[in-house]
Specification:
mainly alpha, single chain, calcium ion binding, 2 strands, globular, binds calcium ion, EF-hand domain-containing protein, EF_Hand_1_Ca_BS, about 5% strand, Recoverin, domain 1, calcium
């Protein structure tokens, strides 16, 4: 477990590093595609958001609290992801929505850093964004030395 500090630019850097971002999103996609049919169903995506804890921690203040509200929220998110209304979310849809969500989070964070306490194996994108930032800092420091 560790504490990381991230702000909007941390998240934006992560998203704009396209190869790294796509790799990470694709990994997430594969691990979420429980029945391995190459697309995410409503159930799979719902599990995804429960796992990533994006909704509870980052979708804003006072988001859904009851099971019913949560359910509606997950439904509306699924509809957002499923751009072509096919009833499933494919890899491209997943990538582009994750990007939008993360950029929205970045805007929300702005330049005020937040502290996050994370498990070492935390699967969230924000953890990966923070790791990327840390590795860049490390490179910067070693090149200055
Ligand atoms: Ca699937």
């Amino acid at each position: 477990m560790g504490v990381v500090i991230i702000d909007g630019s941390t998240v934006r850097d992560f998203v704009s590093d396209e190869p790294e971002f796509n790799k990470s999103v694709d990994e997430q996609f594969v691990s979420l595609d429980l029945n391995k049919d190459g697309v995410l169903s409503r159930t799979e995506l719902r599990k995804a958001f429960q796992t990533m804890r994006l909704i509870e921690s980052h979708f804003g203040i006072d988001v859904a609290t009851t099971a019913e509200q949560l359910s509606q929220l997950y439904d509306s998110i699924f509809d957002k992801f499923d751009c072509d209304r096919s009833g499933t979310v494919d890899r491209e849809e997943f990538r582009s929505e994750m990007k939008k969500i993360l950029l929205a989070i970045a805007d929300g964070l702005g330049s005020s850093p937040i502290q996050m306490v994370l498990e070492d194996d935390d699967p969230t994108f924000l953890k990966q964004a923070a790791d990327l930032e840390a590795s860049k800092l490390a490179k910067l420091q070693s090149s200055n030395a």
